[in-house]
Amino acid sequence: MRQMRQAHVRFGVLDSDKDGKMTPAEFEASGLRAFAEQDGEGVVTAAEKKKGD
Protein backbone atom coordinates (compact mmCIF):
# COMPACT_ATOMS: atom_id res chain seq x y z
CA MET A 1 0.00 0.00 0.00
CA ARG A 2 2.81 2.40 0.90
CA GLN A 3 4.52 1.75 -2.44
CA MET A 4 1.33 2.62 -4.30
CA ARG A 5 1.07 5.93 -2.44
CA GLN A 6 4.71 6.67 -3.20
CA ALA A 7 4.19 5.84 -6.88
CA HIS A 8 1.17 8.16 -6.99
CA VAL A 9 3.13 11.01 -5.39
CA ARG A 10 6.11 10.42 -7.69
CA PHE A 11 3.87 10.43 -10.76
CA GLY A 12 2.36 13.71 -9.59
CA VAL A 13 5.82 15.24 -9.37
CA LEU A 14 6.87 13.94 -12.79
CA ASP A 15 3.63 15.04 -14.49
CA SER A 16 4.71 18.68 -14.54
CA ASP A 17 1.79 19.94 -16.64
CA LYS A 18 -0.72 17.94 -14.55
CA ASP A 19 -2.46 16.44 -17.58
CA GLY A 20 -2.49 12.91 -16.13
CA LYS A 21 0.21 11.71 -18.55
CA MET A 22 3.97 11.47 -18.21
CA THR A 23 5.92 12.28 -21.35
CA PRO A 24 9.52 11.24 -21.98
CA ALA A 25 10.48 14.92 -21.64
CA GLU A 26 8.85 15.17 -18.20
CA PHE A 27 10.60 11.98 -17.09
CA GLU A 28 13.97 13.19 -18.36
CA ALA A 29 13.58 16.61 -16.74
CA SER A 30 13.18 14.93 -13.36
CA GLY A 31 16.50 13.14 -13.72
CA LEU A 32 18.23 16.27 -14.92
CA ARG A 33 16.94 18.18 -11.88
CA ALA A 34 18.24 15.47 -9.55
CA PHE A 35 21.75 15.83 -10.96
CA ALA A 36 21.61 19.63 -11.11
CA GLU A 37 20.74 19.83 -7.40
CA GLN A 38 23.88 17.90 -6.40
CA ASP A 39 27.49 19.05 -6.20
CA GLY A 40 28.20 19.21 -9.93
CA GLU A 41 30.47 16.15 -10.12
CA GLY A 42 28.14 14.37 -12.57
CA VAL A 43 27.06 11.66 -10.14
CA VAL A 44 24.56 11.41 -7.31
CA THR A 45 25.82 9.60 -4.22
CA ALA A 46 23.68 7.96 -1.56
CA ALA A 47 24.83 10.60 0.93
CA GLU A 48 23.80 13.46 -1.38
CA LYS A 49 20.43 11.87 -2.08
CA LYS A 50 19.81 11.35 1.62
CA LYS A 51 20.58 15.04 2.31
CA GLY A 52 18.02 16.02 -0.33
CA ASP A 53 15.19 13.97 1.19
TrEMBL record:
InterPro entries: EF_Hand_1_Ca_BS. This is EF-hand domain-containing protein. It comes from Phenylobacterium haematophilum.
